[in-house]
Design goal:
Oligomer: heterotrimer
Strand order of the largest sheet of chain A: 1-2
Helix content of chain A: over 70%
Distance between the termini of chain A: 22 Å
Largest interface: A-B, 28 and 32 residues
Shape of chain A: globular
Number of strands of chain B: 0
CATH architecture of chain B: Orthogonal Bundle
Order of helices and strands of chain B: HHHHHH
CATH class of chain B: Mainly Alpha
Chains: A mainly alpha, B mainly alpha, C mainly alpha
Distance between the termini of chain B: 60 Å
Radius of gyration of chain A: 22 Å
Number of strands of chain A: 2
Order of helices and strands of chain A: HHHEEHHHHHHHHHHHHHHHHH
Shape of chain B: elongated
Strand content of chain A: under 5%
Largest sheet of chain A: 2 strands, antiparallel
Helix content of chain B: over 70%
CATH topology of chain B: Helix Hairpins
Number of helices of chain B: 6
């Protein structure tokens, strides 16, 4: 693949492992150095290098069915640990590293505002470990290795969320709840992998997929799938398992919320897609049954209940967190259809949701820096005070609702199309109801932002938004608009990803 | 009946431990006890992996260098599988790390709230919200 | 402090032995059960024993907290750096065989494992000590005299 050769050949061959190892090794100087600026520079360079590797991998897997396999330690798979990149996780890696770079640009003013000076370099170090873990989850082809990376990414995340305790002590209890639920989720995943290992004797995902085709009726395999689905559901905050998410998003430092909302649950989603469509063959009856009769009803319930809960929140970030749970329902609905169109719509919504929630949480971070705003009624008149930031927020909110010419519309359109192809009128109804609820909860914020007058005395406090926030914010907001009008590239990525997920399971 | 249980004795122990751990996580309001429950739950999974690695009459698959030169596996000898042990060593380290972070959070919660009971923390949060004027 | 004469004398005898035993476990870990993890915990236990008997301040003087912080980062750095060194030697990540031309005896494997284990040893020792410092350094709400 000469077209995609961005890096020199010697580096390109090792791009899969560099993507994980570079952030990991750079986290150590960040932990030793004591200045926040140096930590930030190291973190940003680590994320940029990871992004380069991700672009390289993404371009190399553009061709149909292209798979990059990297044997760690020179031990050939299925005996050694394998890093395996195909159309599905290449897209996810690009999203992950891209979101990390944008979030880090946003981070400097935000972290300087929210984190004590002596903790900043450690904060960036923990972030790099978390990034490395998430990249590892997305790239590894070994089921147990996936668990290890899942925990490598989760443990620094608990610490990062707890850093919000400077401003609100509830960050501590939220982080603790996340820790307990995250650990249970990861342990459920390990139990599931253990069952698969008992049944097949292998941990390599491609090898598992090959062996599991003939083991459709095996009860151990079915139990394994159930445990894996529940465990990853906890990590991805699927509807009844989402209780950790609103607190974690609401009280974490702004930067952590931006990063979590755009990446962490998305990576867990990717693993669900990988296991239900690639490792377990989708044509086996029990996977289809689980998706149709368990995942789909829960996804629809989540879409409606979480949106309704969002209506009653007073904290803006908590409101958007509940909306994230509802949006997760859309993605799961796509998976629940079990068709290629459904998965493709789910992946598309995954990418688009990262774009819109990135804008929304970044704008909230900007509000928090300038005015310390967290509650909805405190947003009054901010539209006049910070027009750029507020416009970006509005664009994100419109995208969340699904107004035409935004990315939110595109993914809902494809989702409805996939549902109609299946004949699922109830799913279409659920999407529409949830969208109407989204109109209501976005309306509450937008009215405060633009219509209500500026309260007395606030005008004197005017502070310009730092450029380091405006650049990624406006960039992401424009992406919402550009990909909403010119949707072909994202749709193409999502379709390649869905094809890779489904064909890999049945084809090879 | 008794034979069925006796044959699967390890699974019975694992399931009991697993349920004890999960029950402790869900039922107790004390954060430390919740972490204890979490550890018991994780330990049951370690046991699951270790017990499936046991092969009756199996020997450790360790070879001498001299034997390795003319490498031939004796079909008569049954080897135990070392892989689950390695996996569980990793999982134990992960469990210890989670426990340490959890305990550190409990220490911070104790300092911030003066309590490590769920209901006391919820009351403190509620009072705080009332004070802010909800 | 003065009443614990027996403890202090015995600990002074034990601590060097514990440290030597820790290094024994570490370097013998290549051939027998052991290695960086176990050795790291044993080494850390020697410092913790010192802290328990001579007090936290004395232990902090013997093993400063910033050393623990630098040590754990450096250990992780060594671990990851071994992977990058194998890349420079032209192998895959962590492909130890490229480290030494003598393939038939697996010399590269030995070098790689020992280098990685040194990183593990440093990290585990320092993490264990750092955890101990972090928890014991918190000021107790009930002063010791009030019990």
């Amino acid at each position: 693949m000469t077209v995609g050769q961005w890096l020199p050949t010697a580096l390109a061959a090792h791009a899969p492992v560099l993507l994980v190892a570079v952030p990991l090794i750079l986290s150590t100087p960040a932990a030793i150095l004591r200045t926040g600026r140096a930590g930030w520079a190291i973190a940003l360079s680590g994320a940029l290098l990871a992004l380069l590797c991700a672009v390289e991998l993404f371009l190399a897997t553009r061709a149909d069915g292209a798979v990059i396999s990297y044997a760690l330690g020179g031990w050939p798979p299925p005996f050694g640990i394998e890093f395996r990149v195909d159309g599905l996780n290449a897209a996810l890696l690009l999203l992950l590293t891209g979101a990390a770079v944008l979030a880090l640009i946003f981070a400097r003013p935000s972290v300087e505002n929210e984190i004590n000076a002596d903790k900043r370099s450690l904060f960036y170090s923990a972030f790099l470990v978390s990034l490395s873990g998430l990249a590892g989850v997305a790239i590894t082809g070994d089921a147990f290795n996936l668990f290890v990376f899942l925990e490598i990414s989760s443990i620094p995340t608990y610490a990062l969320i707890a850093m919000g305790a400077n401003r609100d002590r509830r960050a501590l209890t939220s982080a603790f709840n996340y820790l307990v639920m995250g650990a249970i989720g990861a342990t459920f995943f390990v139990i599931g992998v253990g069952f698969l290992y008992m049944a097949t004797g292998t941990l390599n995902m491609a090898d598992l997929a090959r062996l599991l085709v003939d083991m459709d009726g095996d009860r151990v395999v079915r139990m394994g799938f159930a445990f894996i689905l529940v465990g990853l559901g906890l990590k991805a905050a699927l509807f009844p398992l989402h209780l950790w998410l609103p607190g974690a998003y609401a009280y974490a430092p702004s930067f952590v919320t931006v990063f979590l909302a755009t990446t962490a649950t998305k990576v867990a989603f990717y693993v669900i897609i990988r296991f239900s469509f690639d490792v377990f063959a989708i044509d086996s009856g029990f996977v289809v049954n689980a998706l149709t009769y368990v995942v789909t009803p829960l996804a629809i319930a989540g879409m409606i209940v979480a949106s309704a809960q969002a209506l009653f929140q007073t904290d803006v970030r908590r409101l958007l967190a509940y909306s994230s749970v509802a949006q997760a329902g859309y993605m799961m609905l796509g998976l629940g259809m079990g068709s290629q169109a459904g998965v493709s719509a789910g992946v598309l919504h995954l990418i688009n949701h990262a774009l819109m929630k990135g804008v929304l949480f970044m704008a909230l971070g900007a509000f928090a820096i300038s005015y310390g705003v967290r509650r909805i009624e405190n947003c009054k008149g901010l539209g006049m005070m910070m027009p750029m930031t507020a416009s970006a927020f509005t664009l994100g909110a419109l995208s969340l609702i699904g107004v035409p010419f935004t990315v939110g519309f595109i993914s809902k359109f494809y989702l409805i199309q996939a549902a109609l192809a299946q004949g699922w009128i109830f799913a279409v109804a659920a999407i529409l109801i949830s969208s109407v609820l989204a109109v209501f909860y976005c309306y509450r914020i937008l009215v405060n932002l633009w219509v209500t007058p500026i309260p007395e005395g606030r005008r004197d406090l005017a502070q310009p938004t730092p450029y380091l926030i405006l650049v990624p914010l406006v960039g992401l907001a424009l992406a919402n608009l550009v990909f909403g009008v010119h949707a072909a590239p994202l749709v193409d990525i999502a379709e390649t990803a869905a094809a890779a997920a489904i064909n890999a399971g049945t084809g090879s | 009946m008794i034979e069925i249980v006796a044959e699967r004795f390890n699974y019975a122990v694992i399931i009991i431990l697993m349920m004890v751990g999960l029950y402790a996580v869900i039922a107790t309001g004390n954060l430390i006890k919740r972490l204890v429950g979490l550890s018991i739950f994780q330990t049951s999974v370690f046991l699951l992996y270790i017990s499936i690695a046991k092969v009756f009459g199996g020997v450790p698959p360790i070879f001498d260098y001299k034997e390795l030169v003319g490498y031939k596996i004796d079909p008569e000898v049954v080897y135990s599988n070392p892989l689950p042990h390695v996996l569980i060593l990793t999982a134990i380290v992960v469990g210890v790390a989670t426990l340490a972070v959890g305990l550190a959070l409990v220490v911070r919660i104790r300092e911030a709230y003066g309590a490590i009971e769920d209901h006391a923390i919820a009351e403190a949060d509620y009072a705080f919200e009332l004070e802010k004027g909800f | 402090m003065t009443p614990h004469v027996v403890l202090r004398v015995v600990s002074k005898l034990l601590i060097p032995l514990i440290i030597v035993y820790g290094f024994y476990i570490h370097f013998h870990g290549e051939y027998s059960p052991g290695g960086g993890f176990q050795a790291g915990v044993v080494l850390a236990s020697s410092i913790i024993l010192y802290a328990l008997i001579h007090g936290l301040d004395a232990a902090r003087k013997a093993f400063p907290p910033y050393a623990a912080r630098v040590g754990m980062a450096l250990g992780a750095f060594i671990f990851a750096a071994v992977g990058f060194v194998t890349l420079i030697f032209g192998g895959d990540f962590f492909e130890y065989t490229v480290l030494h031309p003598d393939v038939s005896h697996g010399a590269g494997q030995h070098i790689g494992i020992i280098a990685v284990e040194i990183g593990v040893l440093m990290t585990v020792t320092c993490v264990m000590i750092a955890i101990f410092y972090a928890f014991s350094g918190r000021s107790p709400e009930i002063p010791d005299g009030d019990w």
